[in-house]
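Notes from hallway chat w/ T.B., transcribed later so I don't forget. T.B. wanted the structure written out for a chain they're using in a teaching module, and asked if we could keep both sequence and structure tokens in one place. Agreed to drop them here.
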Amino acid sequence: MFRLIDEERTRHSVSRMARLLGVSRQGYDKHANRTGGGLSARERADAALAERISHHHTRSRGTYGAPRIQVDLRQMDGIRAGRNRITRLMRAAGLVGAHRRHSANAQLSPADYERRHTAALASAPHSPSLTSEAA
């Protein structure tokens, strides 16, 4: 909404636009006076942390997930960050750690599904159908 106020401030009063959009004039002023390209301090800190996370993920050849990256950040960089924050930033950057085990519920390819279920049906004993008409 602040971007809209920025674009329209030459044609309309900032106070009136802020009131119509349901934001405070002080909030707009705070937004307009921010440094760092309009990013808040938290957004700038997240960007810097995401860069460090990416560095550690690359250094581990893509194997480290959030728990191990959290330990690396603390031990090597002296950065203390929560695991959920690291997970959120990794997800936003598309970074995933390596998995040790395959899930028992992993989705089968159509060929594997057919192979597995065809073999099971062939070995199952046949029972008379209750819906077929007996002659």
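Follow-up for T.B.: The chain has seven helices and no strands. Might be a good example for the class.
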